[in-house]
Amino acid sequence: MTSKFPSVEAKILNLGREVSAGLAANTDIYPAPPVSVADLDAVIADYEEAKEALVAAQAKAKLALEKKDRVLDAVVASIKSELRYAENTVDYDDGKLKLLGWSGRRHKTPLALPGAVYDLESPDRGEGWIALDWKKPKDGGNIASYKIQRREDGSEHWSDVGVTLERKITLSGQESGKRLVFRVVAINKAGEGKPSNGVLAVL
After folding, report:
1. Which CATH number covers residue 190?
2. Which region among 35-44, 102-111, 121-130 has the lowest average model confidence (pLDDT)?
3. Going by DSSP bridges, is the β-strand pair 118-126/129-135 parallel, antiparallel, or unpaired?
4. pLDDT at residue 36 above 90?
5. Which of 13, 54, 95, 158 has a CA positioned 20 to 30 A from the CA of residue 1?
6. How many Cβ atoms sit within 10 Å of the Cβ of residue 83?
């Protein structure tokens, strides 16, 4: 079976040494190799020298990189110190801080109320329970959850009957035989959005 020439450097070097030793010990079999044993040994020695130089250079580069990182940390600390001084000196005046290539504190945009939930519908229902689903608001602030409310038909008083993170819910334990109206309100930390359309059901 034909041997496969190695691709790993260490194995290439070992093979070169074996070839050199074999040629030197068997001149009667291999009297005139295209590369003399002396030349082969010389290129192997050149490789070893180059490898040692590379290892030394890598060690030196590692030290240089570590030094660069330490100096960069010092630069960052110095710049931050200067900027804190400048911010306090001009009381975060954006125009004056721009003279240093910096800017004042950005004011957080207040969280907006959610928009109105829409297309509330009841795909299924039964005695004492109802399934509801809806579409999220098209505008307004981010939604934290949805609150489901219910009232008796003809009443103005809404009661909270459920909360969910999803855009659907199944409510059980509802009063049977009464005309009930359900609606959904999107909520977040800023408050409540406008209520959805109502769904009338007799369970």
Report:
1. 2.60.40.10
2. 102-111
3. antiparallel
4. yes
5. 13
6. 14
By C-alpha distance, which of 184, 178, 185, 169 is closest to 201? 178
Give yes or no: residues 78 and 150 share one domain: no
Residue 10's CB is within 10 A of a number of other CB atoms, namely 8
- The two structure tokens encoding residue 139: 């505008």
Domain contains 3: no
Looking at the structure, tell me whether residues 132 and 197 fall in a common domain: yes
The pTM of the full predicted model, rounded to 2 decimals, is 0.51
Q: Which of 89, 110, 113 is nearest to 100 (CA)?
A: 89
The model's pLDDT over 177-193, given as tens digits with 9 standing for 90+, comes to 999 999 999 999 999 99
Question: Could you list the residue range(s) of the whole structural domain that residue 183 is in?
Answer: 121-202
Rounded to whole angstroms, the Cα distance separating 163 from 169 reads 8
Total tally of structural domains belonging to the chain: 2
Instruction: Indicate whether 46 belongs to any domain.
Output: yes
In this prediction, residues 155-170 reach a mean pLDDT of 96
For the CA atoms of 80, 86, 91, 92, what is the dihedral angle to 10 degrees?
-60
Token duo for residue 51:
């490898």
